[in-house]
């Protein structure tokens, strides 16, 4: 350690400026001077007194140079206003270049806050007047007196700086500082100005001790720079001016005072009919922080305004954040903005050049996604006349053709938004929001999302016609069309789009009878967990709740699925009954019916209750169910859902007993993780006709991996458990011909939810065995399922060669997969509008498939 220097050398204020070396300031002058390297910057003696904030007195020093200075061996000393006895606090450490250093002194009994400090002393200072000396030794000042004496203390050679405050009889310069108080200190300016005159250099203000470890305040930001909106946007995905304050002018094209977007779009005057040649956008979003704050009064569509604010990127959207005071009217001398009219760009770069601009979509657009409509009031669209497709619906998994489908999906995708960010299904557990309810409630349950309707439905596959311009927006990783003002349901006032109602009241008879009038019809229908053992009867069950915190459907915690209570089951049942009876089929294969044997009942208990409801609607005896086969394994080897068959005994008759593939249900076998196939031979009830074997299947889902090699999702588009489904298809292929032969049935009709899109490997097993998918043969371009905005068929009816000779045509009756979830029984009372309707629409998440059959094999 460097030896303490008792004797100081050199001229006043001398500083060693060698790089990396801490300087030691010296002083040999007879009084403080304006050139002092270290000054007393602030003096406060009211600490701990009545009315004080700080508990202690303090003395703050400041380094006026560009090099650090060692204070080791120095001291600060204090005497009363007229006193001659000096109390000492020794100093240590280093005073940073341009920095400050706080010496905390004695405490009083008042105050609430400790003084932050670099060194602690015990001097009790007066709150109104006294003398403070900065001394370059640690010895007490002696042999000196008042300013008027021959040897004033302020003039001693070891005194680096001196402050007399209040009524002090010694001071630097011509006068002491003003009288301080318990709530004020005497301090220099922010730049530590020093004329060596206490009266001139010090002013009174609130105490503000700043220790050496406190970083200096940041420099003031540069003044905002005038820029064009195109310069703010730049030609890339990110603005070149991020973090800078700018001033821009433009016309307000869209404004969102409510709904959470909290801002408006601004576009350069006179722009619009064509995009810029350089690829920069002429529009930008202006954000005003705070949820649902009132927008500035000038932020009205059509106004010309000047905005000052900071440029930033929010999830890929370039925006300017501005306070209301920084948005001002720019007058009436401007040219109006026009909507840019063009096809939707197929690349991100092309869309980036339109970000924020007023845009009039041209050409055809088709609804491709309604899944988030219920939650966020948004609708997925595809440019063109078809929805986006699952690649493996139309191309071999992993093939170049499948990748081309994925690329086309990305090129055509855009989301129609509602001009808000509201989540209409977000649950709250707040007592303030939900009152005394013990379960969650929906935050926006009294509101209604846009684009949901039973009378003007928005459905996948429906044409969308733009009747007004929109704004091109990018939020939450999606390119969007924002309306120019929020669209609020259920009236959807101000919506820029109209949708064609593509609903049909029944399956398309023309499709079903393409090759002549059918003698019989068969169908496949997944009924969405039709359970009569209800969630509210099991204390382990957890529910999904509606806006009144009443359960709608089982969420987790138990083996039950489907409806939560009797009222929910009634709503589900009336929709299922409406759909099944409208199918006008003679035999229907059902998937996702409760396996009542797992709950201690007859296996067909739930099925029999569904048939009773069907007959109550259609007439007694209209429907009957096929009893469960004795081929099935024990209940503990079966799933909690099962497949089933119902039929109209007036039109068809069963031939012998029902059958099931029941010997491959153990772990590690083909149906250890799926529902066993069931089969029944039928023939036309009256007149002559050939027998046909009807088989119902429900393969392993794509959502989780089974136990076999290759069951993990490989990323080829088929999802998880491909091997499981292949093994199930192989077992089905090998089992069915023997059953058909046993009962003399030439024709085989296999219906069900195969959890495989049309071109996937499990179905290839059956195609290679001679089976034909009648849905894609007779109703190509129509699909039974929608997932993540992509359409495809998981539900198929496959026929062998003899079955194909009986077939007259087929139809996907699109009543479910393309409809909004808001219409499903499981979303009852989620919104301020009651969307429940007893009709067939959204009775499930899968669409039924119907096949027409002749009575004879041709």
UniProtKB/TrEMBL annotation:
<dbReference type="InterPro" id="IPR036415">
    <property type="entry name" value="Lamin_tail_dom_sf"/>
</dbReference>
<dbReference type="InterPro" id="IPR036691">
    <property type="entry name" value="Endo/exonu/phosph_ase_sf"/>
</dbReference>
<feature type="signal peptide">
    <location>
        <begin position="1"/>
        <end position="30"/>
    </location>
</feature>
<feature type="compositionally biased region" description="Pro residues">
    <location>
        <begin position="208"/>
        <end position="224"/>
    </location>
</feature>
<feature type="domain" description="LTD">
    <location>
        <begin position="26"/>
        <end position="167"/>
    </location>
</feature>
<feature type="compositionally biased region" description="Low complexity">
    <location>
        <begin position="175"/>
        <end position="196"/>
    </location>
</feature>
<dbReference type="InterPro" id="IPR001322">
    <property type="entry name" value="Lamin_tail_dom"/>
</dbReference>
<dbReference type="Pfam" id="PF00932">
    <property type="entry name" value="LTD"/>
</dbReference>
<keyword id="KW-0732">Signal</keyword>
<dbReference type="InterPro" id="IPR047971">
    <property type="entry name" value="ExeM-like"/>
</dbReference>
<feature type="region of interest" description="Disordered">
    <location>
        <begin position="175"/>
        <end position="226"/>
    </location>
</feature>
<protein>
    <recommendedName>
        <fullName>LTD domain-containing protein</fullName>
    </recommendedName>
</protein>
């Amino acid at each position: 350690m460097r030896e303490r220097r008792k004797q100081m050398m050199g001229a006043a204020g001398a500083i060693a400026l060698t790089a990396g070396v801490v300087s030691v300031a010296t002083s040999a002058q007879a009084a403080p001077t304006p050139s002092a390297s270290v000054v007393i910057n602030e003096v406060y003696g009211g600490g701990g007194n009545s009315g004080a904030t700080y508990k202690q007195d303090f003395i703050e020093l400041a380094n006026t140079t560009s090099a650090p200075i060692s204070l080791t061996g120095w001291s600060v000393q204090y005497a009363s206003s007229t006193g001659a006895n000096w109390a000492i606090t020794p100093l240590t450490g280093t005073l940073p270049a341009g920095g400050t250093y706080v010496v905390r002194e004695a405490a009083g009994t008042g105050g609430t806050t400790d003084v932050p400090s670099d060194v602690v002393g015990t001097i009790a200072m007066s709150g109104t007047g006294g003398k403070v000396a900065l001394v370059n030794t640690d010895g007490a000042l002696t042999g000196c007196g008042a300013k008027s004496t021959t040897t004033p203390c302020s003039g001693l050679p070891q005194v680096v700086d001196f402050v007399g405050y209040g009524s002090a009889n010694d001071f630097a310069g011509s006068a002491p500082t003003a009288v301080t108080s318990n709530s004020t200190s005497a301090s220099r300016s922010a730049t530590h100005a020093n004329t060596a005159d206490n009266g001139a250099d010090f002013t009174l203000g609130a105490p503000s001790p700043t220790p050496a470890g406190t970083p200096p305040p940041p420099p003031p930001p540069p003044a905002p720079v005038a820029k064009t909106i195109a310069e703010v946007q730049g030609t890339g995905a990110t603005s070149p001016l991020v973090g800078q304050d700018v001033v821009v002018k433009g016309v307000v094209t869209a404004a969102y005072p409510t709904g959470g977007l909290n801002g408006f779009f601004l576009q350069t005057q006179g722009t619009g009919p064509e995009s810029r040649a350089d690829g920069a956008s002429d529009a930008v979003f202006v954000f005003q922080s705070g949820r649902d704050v009132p927008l500035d009064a000038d932020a009205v569509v059509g106004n010309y305004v000047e905005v000052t604010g900071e440029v930033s990127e929010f999830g890929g959207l370039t925006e300017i954040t501005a306070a209301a005071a920084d948005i001002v009217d720019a007058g009436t001398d401007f040219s109006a903005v026009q909507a840019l009219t063009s096809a939707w760009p197929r690349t991100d770069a092309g869309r980036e050049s339109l970000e924020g601009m007023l845009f009039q979509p041209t050409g055809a657009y088709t609804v491709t996604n309604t899944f988030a409509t219920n939650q966020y009031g948004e609708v997925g669209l595809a440019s063109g006349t078809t929805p986006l497709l699952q690649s493996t619906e139309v191309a071999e998994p992993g093939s170049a053709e499948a990748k081309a489908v994925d690329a086309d999906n990305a090129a055509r995708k855009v989301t129609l938004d509602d001009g808000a960010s509201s989540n209409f299904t977000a649950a709250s557990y707040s007592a303030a929001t939900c009152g005394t309810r013990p379960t969650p409630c929906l935050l926006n349950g009294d509101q209604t999302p846009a684009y949901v309707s039973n009378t003007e439905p928005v459905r996948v596959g429906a044409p969308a016609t733009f009747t007004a311009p929109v704004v091109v927006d990018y939020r939450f990783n999606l390119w969007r069309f924002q309306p120019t003002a929020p669209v609020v349901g259920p009236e959807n006032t101000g919506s820029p789009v109209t949708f064609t109602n593509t609903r049909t009241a029944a399956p398309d008879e023309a499709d079903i009878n393409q090759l002549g009038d059918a003698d019989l019809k068969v169908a496949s229908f997944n009924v969405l967990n039709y359970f009569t053992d209800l969630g509210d009867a099991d204390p382990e069950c957890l529910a999904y709740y509606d806006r009144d915190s009443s359960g709608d459907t089982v969420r987790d915690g138990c083996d039950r699925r489907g409806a939560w209570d009797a009222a929910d089951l009634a709503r589900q049942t009336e929709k299922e009954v409406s759909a099944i009876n409208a199918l006008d089929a003679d035999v229907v294969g059902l998937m996702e019916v409760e396996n009542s044997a797992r709950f201690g009942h007859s296996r067909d208990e739930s099925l029999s209750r569904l048939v009773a409801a069907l007959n109550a609607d259609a007439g007694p005896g209209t429907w009957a169910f096929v009893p469960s086969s004795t081929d099935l394994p024990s209940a503990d080897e079966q799933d909690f859902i099962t497949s089933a068959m119902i039929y109209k005994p007036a039109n068809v008759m069963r031939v012998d007993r029902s059958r099931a593939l029941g010997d491959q249900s153990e772990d590690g076998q083909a149906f250890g993780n799926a529902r066993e196939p069931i089969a029944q031979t039928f023939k036309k009830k009256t007149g002559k006709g050939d027998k046909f074997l009807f088989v119902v299947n429900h393969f392993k889902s794509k959502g989780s991996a089974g136990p076999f090699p290759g069951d993990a999702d490989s990323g080829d588009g088929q999802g998880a458990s491909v091997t499981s489904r292949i093994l199930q298809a192989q077992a089905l292929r090998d089992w069915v011909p023997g059953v058909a032969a046993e009962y003399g049935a030439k024709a085989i009709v296999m219906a069900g939810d195969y959890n495989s899109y049309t071109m996937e490997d499990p179905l290839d097993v059956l195609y290679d065995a001679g089976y034909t998918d009648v849905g894609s043969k007779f109703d190509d371009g129509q699909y039974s399922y929608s997932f993540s905005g992509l359409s495809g068929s998981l539900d198929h009816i496959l026929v062998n060669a003899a079955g194909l000779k009986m077939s007259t045509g087929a139809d996907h009756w699109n009543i479910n997969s393309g409809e909004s979830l808001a219409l499903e029984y499981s979303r009852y009372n989620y919104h301020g509008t009651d969307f429940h309707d007893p009709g067939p629409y959204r009775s499930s998440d899968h669409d039924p498939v119907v096949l027409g059959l002749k009575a004879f094999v041709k």
